[in-house]
Amino acid sequence: MLALTARRMGYRIAVLDPELACPAGPVADLALTASFDDSKALRRLAEASDVVTYEFENIPTESLRQIASIRTVLPDPSVLHICQHREREKMFLQSSGFPCPGFEVVASAGNLAAALKKFPGKSRLKSSAFGYDGKGQLALDSKADPAEAWARAKIPRAILEEHVPFVRELSVLVARNAQGRSLAFPPFENRHSAGVLERTVFPARLADPVANEALALARQIAEKIGMVGLLGVEMFEMPTGKILVNELAPRVHNSGHLTVEACHTSQFEQQIRAVCGLPFGLVAPLCPAAMFNLLGDLWANGEPDWSPVLALPGGVLHLYGKAHARPGRKMGHLTVRASTPEDAIRLGTEALTPIRQAAGLSTLAL
Ligand SMILES: Nc1ncnc2c1ncn2[C@@H]1O[C@H](COP(=O)(O)OP(=O)(O)OP(=O)(O)O)[C@@H](O)[C@H]1O
Ligand SMILES: [Mg+2]
Question: pTM for the full model?
Answer without folding.
Answer: 0.97
